[in-house]
Amino acid sequence: SSTRSIFLTKSQEIIDQIDAILDVNDERGEDETTDNDNDNNDNTNIDPAALSMTRTTLKQRQTKIQNGFQSAASAKQLLNPDFFNEMPERRSILLGLTNGVLYHGKLQSIHIWQILQTILPELNESFVVEQEEDTCTSSSPWAAACPPKIIQRNIPQFILDAGNQFCDHQQMDLLNNNNGVCGNDNTITIPTNIPDGYLGYHEMIPRDTSTDPLSTIFAEMDALMTLPESLNELEQQLSELNDETKKINQEIQSLWKQVGGPTQDRMGPNGELYGIQNECFSLIAGKYEYELCIFEQAYQRDVGGKKKTGTGLGSWRKMEIDESTGERIFRWEGGAKCWNGPQRSATAYVTCGAETKVLSADEPETCKYVMKMESH
């Protein structure tokens, strides 16, 4: 964490300088320069767009480090021995979390080696060196861990090999005079791009599943993780089938509505009313014309009146069947209220005939009309 803290400090100094330069440029305009400015600081000659990009990159890395500090603080609580003493079964929970981090974080073998340097007592005593927050060093923070030490632990050989390879790279960087978390002097030069390893910050590169030996350990998990892709495809197919089923059910409901539903209550047995649904049949009796509309209204009006107008005799209620005779009975109820009497209603008794028509109309009781019909 000491190198990360140094990065935060040094990168913030650069960001502050960039902000100052951009503010000056805004104040004097892009085309105005002074010889004094150029003599004092070459950073003012950098393209403002490059400065903004550098600032953004540094800010992004600062955010990653700060998030890492927060995660590390939480993880440290899990490593407290008291955490396990209170509930021994928590160790298995921590192991599961560890495996999850190793797998889903796509850590490399070298990352495992680095973690071991910081948590194993026989390694971290020589590795962890307390530093002041602004202490700067041109050597690698892993110098104390190189070359990898041999300890009485069952550490996989490929982890040790990764450590050896890492230490070799660190030695080459030192021989090539690559600067660690500091520059060659105290002068801060604003870079136009931020390479990996700048100020000691290295971007984490995910594990290469084709070359990293650690991948063989997770091979079975990798195979399991391919299942969600297949599962997504199946879920998509299921969703499409559900949509198709819903569409078919809507069509079925529409057809049932036309023929009276699965119980055939509306259209009658075998959908026998389907052929005359919403049709109207009229009869003139005396000075009145009676009109009966299947599934709609029944009317009484003066002869010559407009269709579907007049005194309402009720709305279609149902068709009944006389079990003894097989005669069909049509009923309309809830019509216009008679003066000082009940609401009008109409009942039609239907027998078989060559065509559907009204044969007669009568009013045997006040506001209760009875018709005779025949239908094929």
Question: Would you kindly provide a written description of the structure presented here, covering whatever features stand out?
Answer:
The protein is α+β, with helices and mostly antiparallel strands and 376 residues long. It is built from 11 helices and 8 strands. Strand 7 and strand 8 form a beta hairpin. Helix 1 packs antiparallel against helix 3 and helix 6 packs across helix 8.
Summarize the structure.
The chain is an alpha+beta fold. Helices cover 44% and strands 16% of the residues.
What is the topology?
Layout: H1 2-28, H2 35-40, H3 48-78, H4 81-86, H5 90-104, H6 109-119, H7 121-127, H8 157-175, H9 214-217, H10 219-225, H11 227-259, E1 280-285, E2 288-293, E3 297-302, E4 311-321, E5 328-334, E6 345-352, E7 357-365, E8 368-375
Helix pairs in contact: 1-3, 6-7, 6-8
Instruction: Quickly count the helices.
Output: 11
Q: What is the distance, rounded to the nearest whole angstrom, between the alpha carbons of the first and last residues? A: 95 Å
What is the β-strand count?
8
Sheet with the most strands? 8 strands, mixed
Which whole number gives the mean pLDDT?
80
What order do the SSEs take from the amino end to the carboxyl end, as H and E? HHHHHHHHHHHEEEEEEEE
| Estimated radius of gyration | 45 Å
Strand fraction: 15-25%
**How is the largest sheet built, in terms of strand order?**
1-2-3-4-5-6-8-7
Shape: elongated
Q: Percent range for helical residues?
A: 40-55%
Q: Which secondary-structure class do the elements indicate?
A: alpha+beta
Low-confidence stretches: 33-40, 129-134
